[in-house]
């Protein structure tokens, strides 16, 4: 094939054109083939752990340890999923309590961060403040370091005020981490809503807060949705604070609870996998539901009007 | 309708920016008053202070006989039209117009009658049941004007209402606003950075610069006798030629030898600059009577006129406005002479008009 192309090119100017077109077509096909191959490899590498997790969660224990590993043809069982929610004695399992804790902690901290962050973002967007840029930078700077850097001081402070091993403690620290993020992301959205709506409403007899509530806030809903999902994902997935600041089964959230399944003399990998699947699902579903808003949030500011 | 008095207005933001340094304005009842200036000159802040959307740091604002310093915007009985039309996006035109009236708590028949009247004035009939998204920019701005009208306010405040429209529409709306203002006898404060808009609309124009009023006057006064070097350089397209001159032998003489008739009462021993409009100069054949030798640097052919940029050996090239029939090639040797009356003369150090 390559030889024939070379021949055609060498044949002279008169016949130069058609082979060139053909060659370009061939290169295009080659590129798209390369793309497909690369993307497939990438997808397999990225998705294999997820796939393996799902497989393990529905395998019987003896199949989990089978060598060579069985990709297909094993007996499917849902026992592990039952074990996630139901304890051996028929009551609620520690994992199901942990999931409930995760829902409460992630949900409340996200609501708290949104309720505090959105008005703050509005204020930073609308008003001239002394050293506004410095304030905003300071707020952002709290996100510069990873949680593990501050976890020891936080631990000591929490011990003083009795917030160790409480859901409230986790809610507060997650909210504290999410407020800066909410302020920065929402400020972008508020900037996009013309201040004239509020001016017009104030001329029509509303107070500034009413104007914000009645006219600006409804236009911010997509932005709030996107921001809240990001905050929710952070709180839902957070591991470091959760494992350092909580210890009892009744308070622990899902990430440390799942991690806690590993480390005994025998590890029930089927249970670990099933718990991980259950843990991953809500965020996936939620992100899927608000995917349009998420994209809006991610690309915000990328396009200037 | 009512007049508006602004006394010693000063606005300083918490971050230290002084948006308005010192502004005094006296706007008459039924006057179309234009505030003109480059961006950041304080014109919009002044307007927003009159509206009550900004609280001034010091100074007084009176609308009619009422001191409105501490009144919220809604109680000042004014209506405002914004550059971005600020129509409520979820409301139909009809409800957008009725909105301020309902907020005031007027009875339904009254609301209906006023909406119909405003819609008739602005010819909005077919648009009444559309939402802002379904309207073009010009239509939106007409709705915004109508929304200001329905309130029958004591004064209208316009914040660059035509800036977002394309050129043709802008000219139409300009005529419409001027006509409307005349018909209603409305007091209108109009903020713009567009001098054509200011000249064509305003009964009087205030030119603002760095938070201060540089000049207040009718469009002709502002054009003929700019009160400061800033105004001279700001008004007119192209603006005045500013030529450094000396008083010699009863005439004003520029560096390039150009002679101008001196106005009476010129101060002695000061560096002076004469402001000469491009139409007060003439490009002539070389060595024409009273002309100084010059050279055409470039020519802008605008169709109805030609702007020649001419080097006559002065400190700066001057711009000359000529009819399209008078043609010289670039680089051609020509003559330059002054044909206008006495020019405006400024003191270089104070930058103000001296005679």
From TrEMBL, chain A:
The keyword Transmembrane applies. Residues 99-290 form the ABC transmembrane type-1 domain. It comes from the Bacteria. One of its GO terms (biological process) is transmembrane transport. Residues 1-27 are annotated as: Disordered. The keyword Cell membrane applies. Its main location: membrane. It is a multi-pass membrane protein. It is found in: Cell membrane. Gene3D superfamilies: MetI-like. Keywords: Cell membrane, Membrane, Transmembrane, Transmembrane helix, Transport. The chain crosses the membrane at residues 32-54, 99-124, 136-158, 170-190, 211-236, 269-290. GO terms for cellular component: plasma membrane. Belongs to the binding-protein-dependent transport system permease family. This is Carbohydrate ABC transporter membrane protein 2, CUT1 family. It comes from Micromonospora matsumotoense.
TrEMBL record, chain B:
InterPro entries: AAA+_ATPase, ABC_transporter-like_ATP-bd, ABC_transporter-like_CS, ABC_transpr_MalK-like, ABC_transpr_MalK/UgpC-like, Mo/tungstate-bd_C_term_dom, NA-bd_OB-fold, P-loop_NTPase. Residues 4-235 form the ABC transporter domain. GO terms for cellular component: ATP-binding cassette (ABC) transporter complex, substrate-binding subunit-containing. It holds the Pfam family ABC_tran. GO terms for biological process: carbohydrate transport. It comes from the Bacteria. The keyword ATP-binding applies. SMART domains: AAA (SM00382). One of its GO terms (molecular function) is ATP binding. Keywords: ATP-binding, Cell membrane, Membrane, Nucleotide-binding, Translocase, Transport. Signal peptide: none annotated. Coiled coil: none annotated. This is Carbohydrate ABC transporter ATP-binding protein, CUT1 family. The lineage of its organism: Bacteria, Bacillati, Actinomycetota, Actinomycetes, Micromonosporales.
């Amino acid at each position: 094939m390559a030889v024939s192309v070379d021949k055609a090119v060498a044949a002279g100017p008169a016949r130069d054109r058609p082979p060139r077109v053909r060659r370009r077509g061939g290169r295009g096909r080659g590129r798209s083939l390369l793309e497909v191959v690369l993307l497939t490899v990438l997808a397999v590498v990225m998705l294999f752990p997820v796939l393996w997790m799902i497989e393990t969660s529905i395998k019987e224990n003896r199949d989990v340890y089978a060598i060579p590993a069985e990709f297909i043809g094993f007996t499917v069982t849902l026992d592990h999923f039952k074990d996630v929610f139901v304890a051996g004695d028929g009551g609620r399992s520690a994992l199901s309590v942990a999931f409930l804790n995760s829902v409460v902690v992630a949900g409340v901290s996200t609501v708290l961060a949104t309720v505090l962050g959105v008005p703050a973002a509005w204020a930073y967007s609308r008003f001239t403040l002394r050293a506004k840029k410095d304030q905003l930078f300071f707020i952002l700077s709290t996100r510069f370091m990873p949680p593990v850097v501050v976890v020891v001081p936080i631990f000591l402070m929490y011990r003083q005020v009795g917030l160790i091993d409480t859901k409230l403690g986790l809610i507060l620290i997650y909210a504290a981490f999410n407020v800066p993020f909410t302020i920065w992301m929402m400020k972008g959205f508020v900037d996009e809503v013309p201040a004239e709506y509020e001016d017009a409403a104030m001329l029509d007899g509303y107070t500034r807060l009413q104007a914000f509530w009645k006219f600006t806030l409804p236009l911010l809903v997509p932005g709030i949705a996107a921001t809240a999902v990001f905050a929710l994902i952070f709180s839902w997935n957070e591991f470091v604070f959760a494992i350092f600041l909580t210890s009892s089964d009744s308070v622990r959230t899902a990430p440390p609870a799942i991690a806690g399944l590993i480390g005994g003399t025998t590890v029930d990998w089927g249970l670990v996998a099933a718990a991980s699947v259950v843990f991953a699902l809500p965020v996936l579903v939620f992100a899927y539901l608000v995917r349009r808003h998420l994209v809006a949030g991610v690309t915000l500011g990328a396009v200037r009007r | 309708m009512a007049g508006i008095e602004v006394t010693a207005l000063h606005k300083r933001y918490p971050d230290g920016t002084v948006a308005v340094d010192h502004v005094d304005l006296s706007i008459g009842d039924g006057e179309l008053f234009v505030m003109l200036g480059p961006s950041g000159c304080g014109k919009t802040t002044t307007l927003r202070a009159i509206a009550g959307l900004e609280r001034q740091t010091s100074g007084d604002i009176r609308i009619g006989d009422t001191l409105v310093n501490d009144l919220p915007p809604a109680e000042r009985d004014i209506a405002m039209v914004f550059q971005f039309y600020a129509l409520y996006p979820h409301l139909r035109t009809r409800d957008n117009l009725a909105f301020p009236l309902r907020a005031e708590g007027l009875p339904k028949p009254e609301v209906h009658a006023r909406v119909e009247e405003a819609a008739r004035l602005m010819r909005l009939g077919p648009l009444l049941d559309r939402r802002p998204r379904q309207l073009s920019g010009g239509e939106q701005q007409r709705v915004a004007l109508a929304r200001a009208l329905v309130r029958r306010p004591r004064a209208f405040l316009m914040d660059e209402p035509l800036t977002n429209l394309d050129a043709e529409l802008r000219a139409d709306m300009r005529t419409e606003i001027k006509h409307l203002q005349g018909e209603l006898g409305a007091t209108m404060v109009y903020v713009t950075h567009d001098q054509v808009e200011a000249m064509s609309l305003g009964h009087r124009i205030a030119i603002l610069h760095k938070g201060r009023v540089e000049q207040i006057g009718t469009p002709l006064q502002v054009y003929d006798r700019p009160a400061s070097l800033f105004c001279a350089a700001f008004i007119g397209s192209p603006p005045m030629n500013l030529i450094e001159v000396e008083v010699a032998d009863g005439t004003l003489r520029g560096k390039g030898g150009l002679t101008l008739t001196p106005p009476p009462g010129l101060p002695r021993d000061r560096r002076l600059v004469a402001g000469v409009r491009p139409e007060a100069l003439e490009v002539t054949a070389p060595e024409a009577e009273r002309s100084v030798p010059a050279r055409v640097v470039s020519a802008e052919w605008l169709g109805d006129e030609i702007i020649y940029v001419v080097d006559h050996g002065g400190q700066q090239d001057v711009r000359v406005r000529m009819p399209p029939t008078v043609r010289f090639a670039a680089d051609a040797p020509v003559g330059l002479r002054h044909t206008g009356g006495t020019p405006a003369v400024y003191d270089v150090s104070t930058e103000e008009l001296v005679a």
